[in-house]
Amino acid sequence: MGQLNRNLHGHSPKNQLAPQSESAGAWLTTGDDPYFDLSLKGLRPGWNMFEVQLESDSRSEISAKLYFDYGDDFNEANSEDIVIKPGVLSKRVVNIGRNLKALRFDPTDKELSFRLNVLNFNFLLPYFAKNLISKKIQSSGLICKNDMAIDYQAYKECYSPHKVAVEYNDWIEHKEKPFTSNVQAMLDDMDTFPIRPKISIVMPTYNTDEKYLRLCIDSVLNQNYTNLELCVADDNSPDQRVREILTEYAKLDPRVKIIFRKENGHISKATNSALNIATGDYVALLDHDDELPPHALYMIAKAINENPVANIIYSDEDKIDEMGNRFGAHFKSDWNPDLLYSQNYISHLGVYKKDIIDAIGGFRVGVEGSQDYDLLLRALKHCDSKGIVHIPHVLYHWRAIAGSTALAAGEKSYTTEAGIKALQDHFVDEQGVTIEAGLLDNTYKVNWPIPEQKPLVSLIIPTYNGYEITKQAIDSILEKTTYDNYEILLVDNNSNCPTALAYFEEVDQHPKVTVLRYPFPFNYSAINNFAAKQAKGSVIGLINNDVEVISPNWLSELVSHALRPDVGCVGAKLYFPNDTVQHAGVILGLGGVAGHGHKHYKRKDYGYFGRLTVVQNYSAVTAAVLLVRKEVFEEVSGLNEKSLAVAFNDVDFCLKVLSAGYRNVWTPYAELYHYESISRGIEDNPEKVARFNSEVDYMKSTWADLMKQDHYYSVNLAQNKDDFSLGA
């Protein structure tokens, strides 16, 4: 492609960029941190359209960045992610402050040969900037609040490099189509099913657009699995065309059953009318403008045959626009009760055993807006976790049009209030449990009670020297923590720094602090087990010496979960010093053994479908900040001193707790900084490398089955990246 007829903004190479002499404007990066300094000449403060185009032999999208220096040097807090597709002009709305001191452009973080064709800033009037931001938010299925500060943050989320590792269309083409296009294989498989359940698709309609109604009904009638019925209840639509279309389909196919309500009763009553004519073994819920892919019910029937005790079945889903374009795929966790209490992640496609629907009386009037969520919560009381089945395939296309919750949760503001009521009723028999709105629309926070007689918490902090960081950690706990019934067990492991030793003597005088001596070679597991035996508390906290408290309620939040009888380990949200995420739950198999999900996301980022903002279950959490009841700690014999002296002992411990029948919980409401292994150093000699490799081997051999697929992650997401991006 030839150079576009645009001027290049003033730029000069400053780091890891070598010019390629054979072509003007061509560069070769020589490391993972190349950047240009950009001229401030001609820039106007305010809203600007940044444009960039480069050519490269790479076909993959490139993650670039703009950095703005306002007097405190270049940092992540003042940066903009730029997604570049080679050969295509990329545009970003950016806001330039009046006190800008310097500007920098990082074209990539990889070794790359490229030609820079366009690099430009064009001033935008606020009106045009607002329109561009709003359009991008709406087309991405995010929430538009009509507040420029909030909307700009959401706009920036659309361009996060964590979202673009694999294009969804490419994933559909290379991962989904090879399976879904082989219809004959599905038909052959169905011939072997010993169980052929009848599935009733129930659907309320009201003034549905003809185009979408026909697409919806056709998607049901074109299913590869044919033992179905479509039960439609029209909620007294004023548009007579809806009645005509439904009548037409009922005449064409006997599987279409229609009831016309004489009065409008809203969605719960209308869906119950559809349920009244359903005769299937299972009930699938479908909205009147959404679509099912042809293999959807085949996958449901297959899941029932593989899990005859299935009571509730749910699948992955995506969104579909007016033109039929698919986007916004949600690849879900397997059964994750604490995530469900935080948001209705199960959503579509939801399929229920008809007997359970009948037992709970169908949909409940009074929770419209979250009626599916309420139905699910009530159904849970009639089945155990073995009867809840997740199918990791996209079996539902959710129509994203104006007024739909698929497009913007904020367009139906009553849904959050309805969800709170559904949860309050679900927990009505749980004394002391309260519900409040979460950090995002349609998310919730369940507050678990702490007894009036608060349990003693023993916070175990191992250290070797590290005067400054250890003092910072302990001071922050003592000065900021609102939960008052705790003790700190500071475990000195052969410190020899006079300053540190003097501090240990001093802090030992504090009524909440006890200094213990562990005069043996470093073994993280043994140190914590040693201290746990001397802990007076009924709750143990494993705490690194390089953390710093942010939220004063951190310990109360963690304790409230640790006291729940079905919960084992509880972890916190931890940040690097630059306010990017260090820990937000551990994902098995990530990077080989286990890794931290959402690592390096910005502090205010929502994460994958809001998962950085909600309480949920993970297979493991880091022991940098981990709470667990002492009885559970002892039940699984603490940490593994023999095979995991340094690495992965926290993951192994969490998996032992998980295998003992408890759930592990991560909460974003307990926030701390984590300076990550400042005092211990790195694996920098052959002995340490050999020890680390043996610990890797132990984890892979001991937990091989769990590491094949983390149930709180997804087989469709990447195993070699920590950002919840699509798997290649």
TrEMBL record:
Bias (Polar residues) occurs at 13-22
Q: Where is this region: Disordered?
A: 1-22
Q: Which domain of life is it from?
A: Bacteria
Q: Name one GO molecular function term.
A: glycosyltransferase activity
Q: Which InterPro entries match?
A: Glyco_trans_2-like, Nucleotide-diphossugar_trans
**Which stretches make up the Glycosyltransferase 2-like domain?**
200-330, 458-634
Gene3D superfamilies to which the protein is assigned, alphabetical: Spore Coat Polysaccharide Biosynthesis Protein SpsA, Chain A
A Pfam family this chain is assigned to:
Glycos_transf_2
PANTHER family on file: RHAMNOSYLTRANSFERASE WBBL (PTHR43179:SF7)
Q: What is this protein called?
A: Glycosyltransferase 2-like domain-containing protein
Provenance organism: Oleispira antarctica
